[in-house]
Design a protein that fits this description.
single chain; 254 residues; alpha/beta; Rossmann fold; 2 domains; 7-stranded parallel beta sheet; 8 helices; binds nicotinamide-adenine-dinucleotide
Length: 254
């Protein structure tokens, strides 16, 4: 008997990285999964690789989370094809790092649209179902960058904004049986951090090693580290936890 037997989770940006890690963990624990990502083929391929429990299903859905019509259609498909929705993980994300004087309006707008507007649109489309059934879990990916990060004023603003989003939505939706929480990861091995290494012209392994040395637990994180925390926060064991941001960062910010 898994903690997620009979549950349906929609996870944005789950074609790879942290989102895929969360999808795999919830699938292992019994959930049916909708992988929502930009590219239909990548989303379907990821859905096909999930370790599903008996009777559970996984589908890939192509949607840009910053587009209202696409989001509404994606959530409608989740409910129609998987029989409902119980968990939403707002994980889709992008970075457009640069120092302020070089940051373009597009760099700013894209990061705000995907993280802030994306989380808003996905939560709005899902809460209709959550409130009607008096049950739901919303988990959003923040970041240690929320606390301040050179070259990331756009990303840092969005990630701290999502902590406010989580607190406010926790207040609004708590009376309707909906828990709203966030995870703020530190450095997690993924295409996002490998891309940052490439931009800085540093070898990816070296980049991880340097960061591990500065981290109290002396290692960088993996998608599985985030997935373990996500599996707790979206489960019924965390039903008295809401409005929180849990830092999963090996103590990096301390
Ligand atoms: P990643 O780049 O490996 O994966 C991001 C996924 O989001 C990709 O599959 C991408 O196609 C998808 N995506 C991007 N824009 C989208 C859009 N508009 N609509 C739908 N899907 C979209 O990144 P990751 O490292 O797995 O990061 C996942 C989340 O965790 C992000 O929100 C990121 O900001 C956050 N995070 C990552 C780290 C880290 O160290 N990797 C640390 C803190 C927070």
């Amino acid at each position: 008997m898994g903690r997620y037997d009979g549950r349906v989770a929609a996870i944005t940006g789950a074609a790879r990285g942290i989102g895929f890690g969360i999808a795999a963990r919830l699938a292992e624990e019994g959930a049916s999964i909708a992988v929502v990502d930009l590219n239909a083929a990548a989303a379907a391929e990821a859905a096909g690789r999930l370790p599903l429990a008996k009777g559970a299903k996984a589908i890939g859905i192509a949607a840009d989370v910053s587009q209202g019509a696409a989001v509404d259609a994606a959530v409608a498909r989740v409910v129609e094809e998987l029989g409902g929705i119980h968990v939403l993980v707002n994980n889709a994300g992008v970075t457009r790092d640069s120092l302020l004087h070089k940051m373009t309006e597009d760099d700013w707008d894209l990061v705000m649209s995907v993280h802030l507007k994306g989380a808003f649109l996905m939560a709005r489309a899902s809460q209709r179902h959550f409130v009607a059934q008096r049950y739901g879990k919303i988990l959003t990916l923040s970041s240690t960058s929320a606390l301040g990060s050179r070259g990331q004023v756009n990303y840092s603003t969005a990630k701290m904004g999502l902590q406010g989003f989580t607190r406010s939505l926790g207040i609004e939706l708590g009376p309707f049986g909906v828990n709203v929480n966030a995870i703020a990861p530190g450095f997690i091995i993924s295409e996002m951090t490998d891309g940052a290494a490439r931009r800085l012209n540093v070898d990816a392994e070296e980049f991880r090693r340097t960061r591990a040395e500065k981290t109290p637990v002396r290692r960088v994180g993996t998608p599985e580290d985030v997935a373990a925390a996500a599996a707790f926060l979206c489960s019924d064991e965390a039903s008295y936890v809401t409005g929180q941001t849990l830092y999963v960062d090996g103590g990096f910010r301390l």
